Amino acid sequence: MVTNQTRRSLLKAALLGAAVPVLPFGCSSVSPQTNREPALIGCSLQGKQKYSAVVADKWGMPIQTLAIPERGHGVAIRPNNSSGLNQAVVFARRPGNFFMVFDYKTGQQVHLSVKGKNRHYYGHGVFSLDGSLLYATEGVSSTSQGVIGVYDALNGYKKIDEFSGFGIGPHEVIIMPDGRLAIGVGGVHTDGRTPKNLNTMQPTLSYLSATGELLEQVELADKQLSIRHLAHDGDETVLCGQQYRGEPDEYPALLAMHTQGGRLEQLKAEPEQWARFNHYIASIAASDEWIIATSPRGNCYGIWSKQTKELVELSSLTDASGAVFMGDEFRLSSGAGDVISQAEPSEKTTIQTLTQWDNHWSSI
Fold first, then answer.
1. Burial 74-97 (b: 16+ CB within 10 A, else e)
2. Residue 337: left if φ>0, alpha if ψ -120 to 50, beta else—which one?
């Protein structure tokens, strides 16, 4: 992500002259004030060394704000099912020291879990389909050996298991519709945030069963493409976004897609278009037709056709951050406070939320 100083400069530039027309509440026939139910959760920056988890309505307008101890990253939302619980979990940015469980309707903290000895959190997690377990990406601090921590959500989020044996430096974990876990394994050993093994990286997209059995691993030909952020299309296709750790003047493809038993297929764009993403993909969201991905480092986002794998739109967005697919529209957040609603290429509206959105969004 960009530094706080860079972020402040970008915010100032955005306030002086936005490139996209800002509408008060988009072009929907429904005003945000008429529907204030929680729909989106993300992290935000509140000022120097002040961080929050923010619950917003479907337009990205804040409803609840909860202070968190450190800078946050990803958010996992517990399936409500029949429990009646309205719980979400915010994870600290890597190498993270905590995750916090909270009620997204009241804004009250439910549980705070602090990292164990010689462990750290990588910033992401996901619930099992029935909401009984929380899976979190973790690492052995001395080696970056990957761990999926398993927590019992029915009994105070007590840690009950660890899955390992799939590589080093896992970042995001998602759950597939059949209950399998997909893990973006970055392959990077770090001391804090400093990489130590860029010449020997072994990134993979790895799949585990719900009990931790390694089912499948696939790789990209370029081993300096660190696989980090994931999404799926609601069915069997996984999208993965990469951070390129190779030569600074090379611009390989940063997005790939995969279905079980197949190979990773890279999405298409020209080198100068990939250069706009500045070697980094943050959030990804997908529908059955479109794939959307953001780059805060590149201050942009792109839309690809899922069928052709071709880039069909590349747009500027200052500190582009979260991306989710809701109903029949994408929602995008930014560190400048803009929220974009986009149904398909060239059909978008923008509102200003005055919230400095940071990293990712999750939809309830």
1. bbbbbbeeeeebbbbbbbbbbbbe
2. left
User: For residues 86 and 109, what is the distance between their CA atoms, to the nearest angstrom?
Assistant: 11
Residue with tokens 């706009």: 276
Pseudo-torsion of CA 101, 103, 108, 112, nearest 10°? -10
Whether 289 contacts 307, CB under 8 Å = yes
Give the residue-averaged pLDDT of 166-184.
Answer: 97
From 332, 337, 237, select the one nearest 293 (Cα to Cα): 332
Tens of pLDDT along 276-300? 999 999 999 999 999 999 999 999 9
Calculate mean pLDDT across residues 55-68: 94
Q: How much is the pLDDT for 48?
A: 81
Calculate the alpha carbon distances from 162 to 58, 127, 146, 212 in Å: 35, 15, 10, 8
d(CA 103, CA 59): 20
Say what the pLDDT of residue 116 is: 87
- Give the angle 348-351-353 at the CA atoms, nearest 5°: 145
pLDDT at 207 over 60: yes
If DSSP states are collapsed to H, E and C, what string results for the chain? CCCHHHHHHHHHHHHHCCCCCCCCECECCCCHHHCCCCCEEEEEEEECCEEEEEEECCCCCEEEEEEECCCEEEEEECCCCCCCCCEEEEEECCCECEEEEEECCCCCEEEEEECCCCEEEEEEEEECCCCCEEEEEEEECCCCEEEEEEEECCCCCEEEEEECCCCECEEEEEECCCCCEEEEECCCCEECCEECCCCCCCCEEEEECCCCCEEEEECCCCCCEEEEEEEECCCCCEEEEEEECCCCCCCCCCEEEECCCCCCEECECCHHHHHCCCCECCCEEECCCEEEEEECCCCEEEEEECCCCEEEEEEECCCEEEEEEECCEEEEEECCCEEEEEEECCEEEEEECCCCEEEEEEEC
